[in-house]
């Protein structure tokens, strides 16, 4: 899968994981068309499964489901550092570190009240920043994304398919080559 397709897939995931609104509800067909362009059948299928399960749902139901799924569940919270740190002081340093990564890449957070560890924001960053900066940040929090996915599977939530697509995309990200260190045996 090409890097630009990976980034487009991450942008779609970001859109699907944001609080649903009228524009979202009216864009399902267009979003499905965009998903079809990604070039990987398993990712396309994951996005189609999400769209199929949500496209005939009223906006009110979508909103209720979103709030129930993400706002009331500690295990499904989209703030990826929350499950580990909660409201503890140590979380502030982690959030500051993520924000520094955004700033270093020239990414400006919209002033919408979201914290830097909000998964849709991280996905948006990964879709518009340099490929390495974005995917490295997501890889850093892959275990948290896996944990959220597991909870969504247990709930049989349609959002499980979006998280599955993210995890499939992350599996396709090439591991950066590191120079082998020379070992001397004395």
TrEMBL record:
GO terms for molecular function: metallochaperone activity; unfolded protein binding. It comes from the Bacteria. Keywords: Nitrate assimilation. GO terms for biological process: chaperone-mediated protein complex assembly; nitrate assimilation. InterPro entries: DMSO/NO3_reduct_chaperone, NO3_reductase_chaperone_NarJ, TorD-like_sf. This is Nitrate reductase molybdenum cofactor assembly chaperone. It comes from Terrihalobacillus insolitus.
């Amino acid at each position: 899968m090409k890097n630009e397709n990976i980034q487009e897939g991450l942008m779609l995931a970001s859109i699907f994981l944001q609080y649903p609104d009228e524009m979202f509800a009216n864009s399902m067909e267009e979003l499905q068309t965009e998903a079809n362009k990604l070039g990987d059948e398993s990712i396309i299928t994951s996005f189609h499964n999400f769209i199929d399960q949500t496209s005939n749902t009223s906006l009110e139901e979508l909103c209720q489901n979103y709030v129930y799924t993400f706002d009331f569940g500690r295990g499904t919270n989209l703030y990826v550092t929350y499950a580990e740190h909660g409201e503890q002081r140590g979380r502030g340093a982690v959030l500051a570190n993520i924000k520094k990564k955004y700033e270093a890449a020239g990414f400006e957070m919209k002033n919408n009240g979201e914290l830097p560890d909000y998964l849709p924001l991280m996905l948006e960053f990964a879709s518009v920043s340099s490929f390495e900066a974005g995917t490295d940040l997501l890889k850093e929090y892959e275990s948290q994304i896996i944990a959220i996915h597991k909870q969504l599977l247990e709930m049989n939530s349609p959002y499980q398919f979006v998280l599955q697509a993210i995890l499939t995309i992350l599996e396709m990200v090439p591991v950066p080559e590191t120079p082998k260190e020379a070992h001397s045996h004395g």
